[in-house]
Amino acid sequence: MRRLLVPVIALVLLLPGAVPATADPAPVGGGADQRALRGYAVDTWRSMVAMVDPGTGLPADNIGGDLAAATRSTYTSPTNIGGYLWSTVVARDLRLISTREATRRAAATLATLARLRQHTDSGMFYNWYDPRSGDVLTVWPEDGNPVTPFLSSVDNGWLAAGLLVARSALPELRAEVDAVLAPMDFGFFYNPDAKGAGLPGLIRGGFWDTAPPGCSVVGNYRDRGPDVWYTCNHYDITVTEPRIASYLGIAFGQIPPEHYFATWRTLPDTCDWSWAEQKPVGFHTSHLGVPVFEGAYRYQGIQFVPSWGGDMFEALMPDLFVPEDRWGPRSWGRNHPATVAGQIAHGMTDARYGYWGFSPASDPFGGYREWGVDAMGMDTLGYASDVERANYDAGFGECRPAGPQPSYGDGVVTPHAVFLALRYAPREAVRNLARLRADFDVYGSGGFYDAVAVRSGTVARRYLALDQGMIMGALGNELADDDVRKAFVTPQFERAIRPLLAMETFNVPARQDLPIGQDSADAPATTREGR
């Protein structure tokens, strides 16, 4: 019976406003839109430059809104370094800097990377370095607490992504890139027995090479060098950012391709899993001999495969590099527009904020928080879109009754999430960004500040290297003919990954009524205080 679900849904009529999810995305509008986006690129690049230590070529994790060197954080990560590398390529491709300057900048960063302390047997980089010296951090600079040096699978994935982009776009630096990239072995994170029963394995969140406090598992999946202390968790969700590490490990021949189908599209639909956000709808199939439950969620009339927290970063950051929509037209090509549509529907119709775009970022009231659309994530509590953490509870069929309709409070919009949506809702994204800039003090000399609470008007006036890097990546693809994707994808990568994405059909309708292509500016909104 469940196998009939997809063909039946595919017969739904294309209603006014409905979008064929496999169609090529509409381009951004006319010259004014292009000029606005280019202006954002100019200013965003200014923030990236301000974050970089001139002596090491390493970016800080974040910087204050005034871009003063004294406000640079004194810690950085492999993700931040990778983001700076691909942003440098985008700046060159948009002619914000010359090829000579791009090469000089990337060369300085690569020279420091070559001397940073690494884990010898995996070739991986530690998660936190001092950008001023390149030293591995053992004390957290903001509070003096001890840090046990950690090696993250996903953070090393983003560094490798930046290296691949630099390798292709700046061929004169290929030898320097290869010296850093070649030793990186993602198989060191891969636990072949994670699921048992003869199923393919999963990748761990990472490992420590000295005993950490708290939960860990001693092992060595490559049987190379001393044992390490692995995280107790595995990454077991499909729609989440660690898939970049999975893609790279498969493409490099370090992880078997069957691993791609070992992660959950959704958790199962039985009462044993009734703690999850909602009961999925789906069907059972198999790929490469691996059983797969093709589950999906529904929210605001939209059907999609959820991420863990319901945020844009998990769903769309890997798509900046891997042409998932084109290689997987029946999977990612349907899911990405549906994800964006759900975020728009949440901000404009359900929560009635008048703005949309929710993803982990700074907290306007201090610190950092996971923002998202709770209803679109598998986590029961989810990543809330508002400061008050309004909780959406759809129930789980007969296993758990639905909760009351949430009342949303001070919603927090994160501009990088809007830029991630450019490919799938370009006009809506441009309008949304323009309204944010017009209605709030959310824009500085380094581009959009990191987050804004739209009902109180409170702004997180700082810039994060990760979030600015995502903005630069999205703008490079939009304004420079998919330059990030083209630089990232090698023939080897395409041969390994494209067939995997092409063979799957997500339980997402080929055509559904999505709030894309409509004027979201006309949707009802709740006026913020003081406006």
TrEMBL record:
Gene3D superfamilies: 1.50.10.140. Residues 40-182 form the DUF3131 domain. Residues 298-478 form the Glycoamylase-like domain. Coiled coil: none annotated. Keywords: Signal. Pfam families: DUF3131, Glycoamylase. Residues 1-23 form the signal peptide. This is Glucoamylase family protein. It comes from Plantactinospora solaniradicis.
